[in-house]
Every structure is written in structure tokens, then in C-alpha cells.
Amino acid sequence: MTEHKSDLMRLLTERGYIHQTTDAAGLDTLAAKQVVPGYIGFDATAPSLHVGSLVQIMMLRRLQQAGHKPIALMGGGTTKVGDPSGKDESRKMLTPEGIQQNIASIRTVFERLLTFGDGPTDAIMVDNDEWLSELGYVDLLRDVGPHFTVNRMLTFDSVKLRLDREQPLTFLEFNYMILQAYDFRELANTQDCRLQMGGSDQWGNIVNGIELSRRMDGKELFGVTTPLLTTADGAKMGKTAAGAVWLNEDQLPAYDFWQYWRNTDDRDVGKFLRLFTDLPLDEIAHLEKLEGSAINDAKVVLANEVTALLRGTNAAKAAEQTASQTFAGGGVGDDLPTFSLPADGISLLDALVGIGFAKSRGEAKRLVAGGGARVGGEQIKDENHHIDGGSEVRLSSGKKKHGILNP
Predict the structure, then answer these.
(1) How big, in percent rounded to 5, are the helix, strand and coil portions of the chain?
(2) pTM of the shown model
(3) How many angstroms separate the CA atoms of 390 and 341, rounded?
(4) Helix (H) or strand (E) segment spanning residue 124
């Protein structure tokens, strides 16, 4: 294993964040002798990022923990264009007001994980709309355009995959990589930013920014990408059958967030503890060696640590207590989703839809037919079952989703 000069490269390597680097030795040397401002860009297409973006936010946290300066770049400008990376179709257009509302909402998560301020290693959040919207189109074509060839742009996966699938790629989206490269150059000039980090699908965009700055300004910049993060069963991180696992609490209750991590595949526990918690590596090594039912203890630690980081310690404790009461004690913890039970009762199908366990009566029927619906712990296979009103009822979908029907 390479002996690192800097805490930054050692930390990123030990915890499994690094997939590719443009010049690992050069970045290591730079990080050992000075504070390195580094950035990651996030587009603001929704009021919350989801778990798939958490590894990137944690990279900024690691950057700060190693004594460097994180820059969270919000794509107020690029959100208007759309990143074709990993997409089969164009994104819907948002209003400028909607984009700014999303940025304000997303910022609340960053404030939990990073220390913002005016100090040399304090985090800052910037919005690329500030400079991209000021660019004159002809000026951009004249100054930046000559440094990009269409031949090379067509070789990038974000473009190639879309064309291979015969999915439309608009000229607007085709410009995204130019704007992202310009972002890196802008931050290098205004914030002395020397490093861009991102997911493995951003490698081409990062290299473009490094080359653009070298050609236009003669600056030496660096890039690091993380591995494509999938779960052990091959699923994309942050996606479940029930939908995206959002980071903001108003998009996903703390209990559901906690439960996502508690349900981690045994094979992923060590990896997730390294990436998403601040636990010491020797403690993680012990936890990931647990076998049989004991591995569930490690999953509870994972769920508590991540939930405490994102939602606070009290939310993590409440979620664990609810899970314990629900699963171990057969009780009904305070943190479970609830739905009002009418005085004259409700049909099982309407209850499943109302509490959020099914999106439609048709989906609820399939759940019941498959034996996944339980009322008061008893399996119900009659889709016409009526739940009486007047008293609290525990409703379950499968073994892991539970809720309360309140009179």
C-alpha cells in the first residue's frame, strides 16, 4: 500500500472513497504542504438530495476533517441545462424561483455535515448561476469553444450511451460538460480551488475542467472520483422499491431513513460504515467481522450513526427505540407512520394506500394477495377485509414496514 504524505489522501484511501485520480502523487504532495480548496457540484432538481449523493457530501466532510476547505457548488445555472450523465431522457425545466427554493432546502443537510464560515478551512456554498448566467453566448463560444472538439465530446459516456440507446440528446444538454469545465476554471480563479471531486460518471467532465484551466490559465488542477456505489445485490444506492431515500427529513421521516440503513445487506456493512460514519477504522473492522445474527448489531450501529449525522442524535435514538418496540417487543413505537381511522372503520385496501404502503388500490390488492398485509400481527388475504374503527390498530406490510391506524 502506498505511503501517503497527506492526511487527505490517507483518509480518502483508507475509507474507500477513491476510484480514479488525475495525479495522485501530485495531489498528495500539495495536500501535505498547504490547505487545498476542493469542490463537488450538486444540481438542484429537487428539494432534497438522496442517499446516492451522500458519498459525495461525505467526501467534502473528509476534506474538512483532513484540514482542507470544502466548496459545495450548487448548480443554479447548470440545473437550467441538465447533466446527461446516466440519464435516458431530458430533465424537466424548473423555474429560477423553484431552483433557489431547492438550493435553500438542500443547504440544511450540508450544514449538518460541514462547518461553514470565513476561516481558511471553513466550508462555503456557491451557486454557479452567479457566473454562468452572466456569460455572453458569443463570448463563451469565442473564449471557451476552441478548447473543445466535437469529436472528443462524442466519446464521453454521458453522450455516447444516450446516442447508443437512440435517446434524444438536446443541444442544450450537450453544452453541460462545457459549463461544468468552466465552473472548475472559475473556482480556480476566484477561490484558488485546486481539486474537483465527484462520482465515477463525472470523470470526463472533471478532466475537461482540468484541461481547460491548463490551456487558458496554465494552472495545475486535480481530480478525484469515487467508485460507482451499488449495494451488494447490484442495486443503485439510494433507490428502493418504495422510492428514493431522501436526505431531508421533510421528504422522508427519520424512522424510514433509519430503517433503510438497518436493512443493509450483510456484505455492505463494513463498506458503509467506512464511507458514511466517523467511527474509527479499528471499531469498524471489529463490527464487520460479526457473523450470524450478531451482524444485526453492526447494522443498528450503522443506522444510528448515519441517522445521527443527518437527522440528529435524538432522531436516531427514537428510531431505534421504535424499531425495538415494533420488532422485538411486538409493540407499536412512537416513530411509526400513522393514518386516521374513521369511526366506522376503513377497508384494508384504503388503509394500505392511506398509510403509504401502496400507491394505489391495485397495488394494495397485489400486496394482500401475496400475503404481505397484516392487521394486528395477523396475516389477511381477503382484499375485502374491513378494519373496525374505535381502537388503535397496527398495520404491517411484509416484515419490515409497520404503521398505526389511530382512531
Answers:
(1) 50, 15, 35
(2) 0.77
(3) 8
(4) strand 124-127
pLDDT, averaged in runs of 10, over the chain (407 residues): 88 96 96 98 92 95 98 89 51 81 96 96 95 79 76 74 73 77 95 96 91 94 93 76 81 89 92 97 95 92 97 94 68 64 83 85 87 80 81 75 77
Say which amino acid occupies 177: M
Total residues belonging to the chain: 407
Residue 113 in grid coordinates: 455535515
Cα–Cα dist 312/254, whole Å: 9
Q: At residue 206, what is the residue type?
A: I
Burial, 290: exposed, middle or buried (Cβ in 10 Å; 0-12, 13-18, 19+)? middle
296-299: Cβ within 8 A, 24+ apart: 298/269, 298/273, 299/261, 299/262, 299/263, 299/264, 299/269
Which among 125, 39, 101, 63 is positioned nearest to 248, based on CA atoms? 101
